[in-house]
Design a protein that fits this description.
The complex is a heterodimer of chains A (about 475) and B (about 220).
Chain A lengths: L1 H13 L15 H26 L7 H48 L2 E6 L6 E3 L1 H7 L9 H5 L4 H16 L4 E8 L5 E12 L5 E9 L1 H57 L4 H29 L7 E4 H18 L2 E6 L6 E4 L1 H22 L4 E10 L3 E7 L7 H4 L17 H11 L3 E6 L5 E8 L6
Helix pairs in contact in A: 1-3, 2-3, 7-8, 7-9, 9-10, 10-12
Chain B lengths: L2 H4 L4 E5 L3 H13 L3 E5 L2 H6 L7 E7 L6 H10 L6 E5 L4 H9 L4 E4 L4 H33 L3 H11 L4 H8 L3 H14 L5 H11 L1 H4 L2 H4 L2
Parallel strand pairs in B: 1-2, 1-3, 3-4, 4-5
Helix pairs in contact in B: 7-9, 8-9
Classes of the chains: A alpha+beta (about 475), B alpha/beta (about 220).
């Protein structure tokens, strides 16, 4: 990366578009130094011989003096030849380098990469024109780190400063994504990569590159929003199946409230009031009212289109709650339910609504598999456990016909369904929900009959 | 039938898996002057069920374990079938049709109003009382019939066919006076005063349906 940057910098300088190159990169090789030294010594010798000749004109007559002159001439000729060869080699090398730099710069430009170097000591920020274009800055505005930082989204500012600091101190390159408010009012997403380098004088400086990832972010957000809508829609669809169960859950407290109130009314009419009893009745009415409200809250939370909420919860409780919701439905379909919950609580971090949706989906699938294959019903077994001491494990097992081997492998892919009227989205959404909890979901056929679906979700660290 | 249970106060047995509904329904029934006993499951109820205690059951349909309909089957099997009022939070028409066909007093939807519930309970208790009364009377008639000798039963069959003493004596090969004595004993033992009343008793005992042959040739 540093090499790429270096070449790009040189090329900009060569094009004359950038006037101040932060550092020279022309390294003097050992061979250059040797030839230069020898040439210097030869020149000194020539000077000494000339002084000798001026002071003693008969110097040429002396055979020793003539020999010295000839030797010096020969050495000088050799040195000049070596110098000429060396400079030609250097010129060739430099032209190759320049060609290379040109190509790199072109690549950086076509990839819409902005390149920059920040000299911490002087505070100057050098950048390529592409960088300025990305940032929406005109060419003549002097750049400093502070002018750039002043336009960064306040939520990302602290993170960016930390990233720059750690890049300056560390050996490794640091990446950071931030929002940048351009002068033209556009909010762009940038990914920055920074790397500490040494300039020829041995001073530390920071260099790096900048990519605009706004479009990528937009697509990601759109995909996420579509996934959320789909999750929500299937959940709402599921509520249709849950309708009678929810009505049942609501009617129970309403029945208790009505009977309590009417009992109280009758006692009032008869004038046979026992204050202790009256208090007890009112307390029960209030309690049942809040129970009804809980059902409605639950219903609303299932209907609501929420962002993913991470909260601490007991997976055992979620399983128990979900099965309570479908219990009546299962009885009506002659399905026996066996629940075996792990003895201790299973603390996980996640979204309770989504986890319930995931469980409901597996339970409905199991029930439909059993009912479709056998009118006399079957047994649904739900077990919770701890796997490898690190993950909460839920197994939903049925006594249906099982899953065909050729489908088992692609069961969680979208639009794969074994049901007559299935869209094939339920399990792919289930997998997405499991993934958003850093969990896994998989299926296998039971040794005798039916299939078992497994979910595993990492256990949350218990607060000390 | 033992006297102690026959005279005890009618009970309303409430069976529901929801504890708060059990408490509320018990309060409502108490406020209307009924004695109520609550049970969390059909199993719990059947474990201490005494069919001799008069009363009716208010049963929630759609519970775990044994369903309300299965409980209805259990209760209708014994000597003293108990009338049942169903309440349900599910809107399953099939279940209600099945329940009503099996003789449920009423099938009420939760939340159930006091008037509907108390009316159904009152009807159920009246029915239970009437049924128990009838069963008591029938038992008494059976006891009376059991005191007749074989000859008297033979004579009674002839009386019920409308035969006169003279005809009976001829048929059975006895003298008319003996036939008259038999007739008097029968009327006395069966505690009736007229042939019309005797006919009515015979009808209740089901003597016509069971036929006379076994009586006349025994």
């Amino acid at each position: 990366m540093t090499e790429l940057l270096r070449r790009a910098l040189l090329s900009d300088a060569a094009d004359g578009r950038q006037t101040s190159v932060p550092y020279s990169l022309a390294h003097i090789s050992l061979r250059d130094r040797l030839i230069g030294g020898a040439q210097l010594i030869a020149a000194c010798c020539c000077l000494l011989l000339f002084i000798e000749y001026v002071s003693k004109p008969d110097f040429l007559a002396d055979p020793t003096g003539r020999a010295a002159i000839f030797i010096l001439l020969g050495v000088s000729a050799l040195l000049m030849l070596a110098g000429a060869l060396q400079s030609e080699r250097r010129a060739k090398r430099e032209s190759v380098l320049r060609e290379d730099q040109k190509r790199t710069s072109l690549a950086a430009q076509s990839a819409n990469l902005g390149l920059w170097v920040w000299d911490r000591a002087s505070g100057t920020l050098w950048a390529t024109p592409a960088y300025r274009t990305l940032m929406g800055l005109s060419g003549d505005v002097p750049l400093t780190m502070e002018t750039v930082l002043s336009q960064i989204h306040t939520d990302d500012l602290a993170g960016l400063r930390t990233a720059i600091n750690s890049a300056t101190l560390g050996e490794k390159a640091v990446e950071y994504e931030y929002r940048f408010l351009r002068k033209d009012g556009q909010l762009r997403w940038f990914r920055m990569r920074a790397n500490a380098t040494l300039d020829p004088d041995g001073k530390r400086q920071l260099s790096g590159l900048l990519v605009d990832i706004t479009e990528q972010r937009k697509i990601e957000a759109e995909v996420e929003s579509q996934r959320r809508s789909l999750t929500h829609l299937t959940r709402v669809g599921m509520l249709g199946q849950l309708g009678s169960a929810l009505a049942h859950e609501l009617k129970q407290p309403l029945t208790a409230i009505l009977s309590n109130a009417q009992a109280l009314q009758r006692l009032l009419e008869r004038g046979a009031l026992d204050m202790v009893e009256v208090r007890a009745v009112i307390r029960d009415i209030i309690q049942d009212d809040s129970r009804a409200a809980d059902v409605i809250r639950h219903l609303r939370s299932l209907l609501k289109k929420d962002e993913f909420r991470g909260e601490a919860m007991d997976l055992n409780e979620i399983v128990a709650q979900t099965l309570k919701l479908v219990r009546n439905d299962l009885i009506a379909r002659r399905i026996a339910v066996s629940i075996r919950l792990h003895g201790a609580s299973l603390p996980v971090l996640g979204d309770s609504v989504q986890l319930q949706q995931l469980l409901l989906n597996l339970v409905f699938n199991a029930v439909e598999a059993m009912v479709e294959s056998n009118a006399r019903g079957g047994t649904l077994t739900v077990t919770t456990n701890v796997a490898d001491e690190r993950a909460a494990h839920v197994a939903v097992s049925d006594t249906g016909p099982g899953v065909k081997d050729e489908i088992l492998g692609k069961l969680f892919e979208p639009f794969v369904s074994t049901k007559m009227n299935g869209l094939g989205l339920g399990l792919s959404i289930s997998r997405a929900i499991a993934a958003s909890h850093q969990g896994k979901i998989w299926a296998e056929n039971n040794p005798t009959h039916g299939a078992t679906f497994h979910i595993s979700i990492p256990l949350a660290q218990e607060p000390p | 039938m033992n006297i102690a249970t026959a005279t005890s106060v009618p009970q309303v047995f409430v069976i529901d898996d929801d504890p708060s509904i059990l408490v509320a329904l018990k309060r409502l029934l108490n406020s209307a002057g009924y004695e109520a006993k609550t049970f969390a499951s059909p199993r719990e109820f059947l474990a201490c069920h005494d069919s001799n205690v008069p009363g009716c059951a208010v049963v929630d349909v759609g519970m775990d374990e044994l369903s309300g309909i299965a409980l209805q089957e259990c209760l209708s099997l014994g000597d003293n079938p108990r009338p049942i009022v169903f309440v349900t939070a599910c809107d399953d028409v099939r279940v209600s049709v099945q329940a009503m066909k099996a003789g449920a007093i009423d099938f009420l939807s939760k939340p159930v109003s006091d008037v509907a519930l108390l009316t159904a309970v009152r009807n159920a208790l009246e029915l239970d009382q009437k049924a128990r009364q009838e069963r008591r009377e029938l038992a008494e008639l059976r006891r009376r019939y059991a005191t007749l000798t074989i000859r008297e039963r033979e004579v009674m069959a002839h009386i019920l066919r409308g035969r006169l003493n003279k005809q009976i004596a001829y048929d059975l090969g006895i003298v008319e006076k003996t036939a008259k004595v038999h007739r008097g004993r029968i009327m006395e033992k069966m505690e009736v005063r007229s042939v019309a009343a005797l006919t009515h008793v015979a009808g209740r005992l089901g003597l016509y349906e069971s036929g006379w042959d076994h009586v006349s040739h025994e």
